[in-house]
Amino acid sequence: MNRHGGIRETGVLDYSVNINPLGMPGWMKEEILQLVEEANTYPPILAEIATQALSEHIQEPLKRLLLGNGATELLYLFARSIGPGRVLIVEPTFNEYRRAFGVAGWEVYAFLRGRDTWTLDVEELIDYLEKVPMDLVILCEPNNPTSTMTDSHSLEVLLTFCKEHDTQLFLDESFLDFTRQGLPAHSPGVVRLRSMTKFYSIAGLRLGYVLADEELVHKMIRFKEPWSVNTFAQGILPRLLDDEQYRRKSLAVIDEQRAFLYQGLQELGLPGPQPRSNFLFFRCEKEGFHQEMHKRGFYLRSCEDFYSLDDKYFRLCVRTEKDNRALLQAMKEVLR
Ligand SMILES: Cc1ncc(COP(=O)(O)O)c(C=O)c1O
Q1: What b/e string do you get for 47-61 counting C-beta neighbours within 10 Å, with b at 16 or more?
Q2: Distance 284 CA to ligand 1 centre (A)
Q3: For the chain, what are the domain ranges?
Q4: What is the pTM of this model?
Q5: Interval 80-112: pLDDT, tens
Q6: pLDDT tens digits, residue range 118-131?
Q7: Ligand 1 centroid – CA 288 distance (Å)
Q8: Considering only the top CATH level, what class is 41-242?
Q9: Ligand 1 within 6 A of CB of 302
């Protein structure tokens, strides 16, 4: 199980969780207090009203959508609703895929990204799939922890290959909201997993959804526990989707601070790929770097538990300018 849910330590800035630095939208506390009145009864079993709002917002038919208690619930649900079979995970990536498919009895294979750019070489992946056919390919876009994305042409090529070879493509788009690439429409045969917990800073409330073929959503519903999305999460969803102001402000802060941090890392000589999401990935050879930063009040995510990585790889999230300036200053001192 992924033990990295962040830390709560007085005087320490948590750079290890990839959550929107603005915190949840300002109206949310009031809204949640109002929803307490409704919490003494069961919410709609499959979050039907909230799903309708989502369907209208992203303009996809209701039957292609399934809401869950965060993306994680839906990942595990998906893994046990179909198969088992052979799944290929493009690594290094979010640890929970390996666990979700492993416990559901799948044969899990790994395909590594190139270490120079940390992007996926789709030609190489297709060569591999031709030799070792798979039932399912898992790709995280943008990828955790590398913050890289596959270009749209390569994705199209992969999609076409998968369709022609009866391989299902599972795209985890949980961090796509942090980029300025709009949310893609449904493509037949593709499963898209999206989290709302990160962008709206509601990791404790939890919301996520799957966009997939109707038949697959139907299969997942057969395996799903009832009422997994609570009254509060269902209640706030329509307003979250409509909050354009929060969305714009978040993207503006994240764009600016991501560029600021990336430049700072480069000036410190810490190599890493151009980040696309709300977090940055880099390598630091300095012995004791993580501990020294922690002592100075900054908790970074070291990546030794990611497949094929070690404790010299780090991920840090984008926070506010004040925090980020202090972080870079502390890094400078530790690396001196
Ligand atoms: C790539 C990726 N997908 C999904 C999740 C889970 O999201 P949620 O909190 O909505 O369950 C995470 C959490 O870190 C993640 O990194």
Answers
A1: beebbebbbeebebe
A2: 25
A3: 13-23+245-335, 41-242
A4: 0.96
A5: 999 899 999 999 999 999 999 999 999 999 999
A6: 999 999 999 999 99
A7: 28
A8: alpha beta
A9: no
